[in-house]
Amino acid sequence: MKHRIFPLMVGICLLIGIGIGIFGIYGNSNKAKSTNTNITNSQIHTKVPSSKVRVTIEVDLKQPKEKHKILLNKDIDYQKDLNAFTALKKVAKKKVGYQNGATIYVYKIGKYSENYIHSGTGWKYYINNNDDIVKAANLKSLKPGDHLYWKFVDGY
User: Fold this and answer.
1) Does position 49 have pLDDT exceeding 70, yes or no?
2) Which residues have C-beta within 8 Å of that of residue 84, sequence separation ≥ 6?
């Protein structure tokens, strides 16, 4: 009797685990599709006032699940010693997940954390829409009039 119950219990546990896994996958993709934004491209690409820094947080993926979406677009006052990380923290506040140290690594903004959509997705930042920056965000100084983009991308 003991030998028949054990395989049955293992089978039930496997079915429950598979069910949880499938629900988790479909639950995440449905949540991802529900976010909407009312920010237009013209609001993002207007000239940044010379006393401000514009911070834009966006999803910019190659995969169709959440191809492109603006999560936040905000102008903040420029202050001396403002860098890409402190500007992000000013606008996203406690929604930023990061590893602290001599260099700071941002792995999460809002619900989007590294590998959230699929393996290989994560956060990169750009200044004035140029090539991505290789410096840690806390080491990259900003100037008045800069436009800082934080993008959740494929192949970060």
Assistant:
1) yes
2) 125, 127, 133, 137, 138, 140, 142, 148
